[in-house]
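Hey L., structure's done. Input below.
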Amino acid sequence: MVTIKQAAADFLAQKRVAVAGVSRNPQGHGSNIVYQRLRDRGYEVFAVNPNADEIEGDRCYPDLGSIPGGVDAVVIGTSQDNTAAVMRDVVAAGVKRVWMHRSFGQGSVSEEATRFGRDNGVVVIDGGCPLMFDPTADFGHKCMRPFMSLMGAVPKQVS
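Output:
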């Protein structure tokens, strides 16, 4: 077990990151906000959505296996119903770091997917948002983190 700060630091130290669940309708969609911020902070970021060819003006991939050269980490921002399928894709692609996005409500967090990922050697951050932690954080997300932690939406430890 490591603290959320340690897990977040390791996750955000990766430079090739896929964001699964980016939307063709980006207004207020959490995955798109994460995608944009990672891109703006200099990450090599890849949009994943099987129903789109382009997102935010960038090429979009149908699955993780389609990304040339693979990725080091994946943010899952799909509906909870799709998280297990994405986690199977993560394991098949050999990715070892996953962040299941969650703010209010359940987000993309799935106990089944978390268990499957961890059973297959994936470090799973099951809640919160990468934008709550440096170097991707902004003031609003930093303010949300303590509140969301108290509410149980951000894990204290990760395995």
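Residues 53 and 60 are 5 Å apart (CA to CA). The mean pLDDT is 90.

-- N.
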